[in-house]
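Hi R.,

Here's the input for the adenosine-5'-triphosphate complex you asked about:
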Amino acid sequence: MTTTDEVRPTLRGLGRRWRQRREAAAHLRRLLPYAGSGLVALTLAVHVVAGAAPVAFMAGTGYALQRVVTGEPATPWLATALVAFVVQQLLAPVQLVLSRKVQRRVDAACIERLTSFAFHGATLAGLERPDVADRLAQAEEAFEQWTLTPGAALEGALALTARYVQLVGAVTLLAVVVGPWPALAALVVALVARLGQTEGFFRWGGLIRSFGPLRRRVTYVRELATGTRAAKEIRVLGLAGWLEDRYVAENRAVLDPTWRLRRQVYGVPFAVYALVAAVGSVVALLLVARTGADVAAVSIAVQAVALCGRFGVIFPESDVKLVYGRGAWEAMLELEDAARRTGTPAGGGQVVRPDREIALRDVRFGYRPDRPVLDGLDLELPVGTSTALVGVNGAGKTTLVKVLTGMYTPDAGSVLVDGTDLRGVDPEAWQRTFAATFQDFLRYELTLRENVAMGAIDHLDDDAGVTAELRRVGLGAWLDGLPQGLDTPLTRAVPGGRDLSGGQWQRVALARSLFAVRHGAGVLVLDEPTAQLDARGEAEFYDTFLDLTRGVTSLVISHRFSTVRRADRIVVLDGGRVTEAGTHDELVARGGDYARMFEVQARRFAAAGAAPPGPASGGVPARTEGETP
Ligand SMILES: Nc1ncnc2c1ncn2[C@@H]1O[C@H](COP(=O)(O)OP(=O)(O)OP(=O)(O)O)[C@@H](O)[C@H]1O
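And here is the predicted structure with adenosine-5'-triphosphate in place:
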């Protein structure tokens, strides 16, 4: 490789990084309004005075020394040095307090912005994108650790003011006492060393950021080993040793390249810039010596050159915070940008409520454009009727719900509400139409009341409604036995709290959806509502299913025939489209996929000497997408 080839990429790299620095500065400026102009102005003023104080101290001590040597009165200069010293000491805590205030204000606003974005600005489609999830994790990590946040970055940037005031002061003083050339030499030393060190450190920040997903894997394995969630399986399956080895391997996968990069980024450049600083300082001092300076000039020059030389180190109050905190802020901005580009954000469009039917017409949708999950799907959900959806694992049942509820927009075809395309409808208002219990429903570590009333949170005070729904899902007797009743926290982490069994949690989630219906949600979606219920619970659900869904437009997804057979209409999803539709009896009489699945299941029950799938438990036989029924 020729010398030119070696230089070119470096120059290009420097040009690119200069642009990056300017962009980073522009990003940071966007944080200023969060801190407030008054606080920023006050903080800057304090940093300016705090930066000027050491320079005044330098001048004071230098000239006082000169006076002492020549026998002149040194008191005014000694007083200057003393005042400068006291000011410096007094301002240090003030700087700290103001900096913390800047950080707190900015971080509070950023957390609000992040939360508000997650709730209102981002679509589910956006949040489910891997790059968005990565950025979100990075931003969350920053707020968890609390030290390397966007607020810290701004605070660090403002604190640089004191350093640069010191530099300008020292160089000016040097120019005054020993002339321009030593001053210029010291300035060049300071700026070259500063540029070199920060260049390496900023590059390092970018590299560390790219390790985010790997670091999160290490954290995941560690939490798996130390948390309680996996504790049962780890013991029963004897996974402790394997997990330990896995942790060591994953950790090395992060640490080895980190150390390698650290050597590359810091090692040689650090030595080079340290050398530049040392040689430059010596040159500056030699220039001072050649000027035949007096005692004051020598004293000031030595201090000023030393101060300039210190520009070759990483400033702890600024640089670390700037590099990492800036990363978190940029992750937030990228997150918003990426999520905004995915799907329609909530907030605009018409508000509709179905009067006749919700229809999916020739819907095509895939998480990746080349792999459609729904492909030419037609389905009607007449208002006030119950529809059950069956299909093998991975057939796209949950995906259909996401499209139906407007969380994803179809790639082709449309979802029509009484003829109005969902694309023109306000997604947030449309989602309020639904009451849904998903397979992966949430177990909120809140009170029992809150867990249920979250279905219609504006009715949090409707204790009668909460209690009625808990009774409807079969938790009446259990509720009566709770000393704290609806106030019981559903977590063991709180005194008096209860942890529930899987089935009990599912009933609470069902009660939540029913509470939503009670307060006006028009469409009930139940995705595997009985998966965690015991046979009796499932039978009870089956008995009350019609009652639970009477007059409500409902869509039930289940592998269990006992759950689906009472629905007004059953549809079979296969290959991304509806392949059969009708009542249970019609579909059995037709002798298609549904009938075959039902028959297999009925035989299994007959062989086991149990009742065929009906009020008792039963299920669509296990099969995965791709197998023929
Ligand atoms: N967020 C996502 N990103 C990418 N692919 C996804 C996502 N969610 C689901 N898929 C894929 O889409 C397909 C359909 O998944 P879906 O969850 O809709 O199936 P399902 O019929 O509900 O399955 P099950 O009966 O197991 O719950 C599967 O191949 C799944 O891997």
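One thing worth noting: The longest strand covers residues 357-365.

Cheers,
M.
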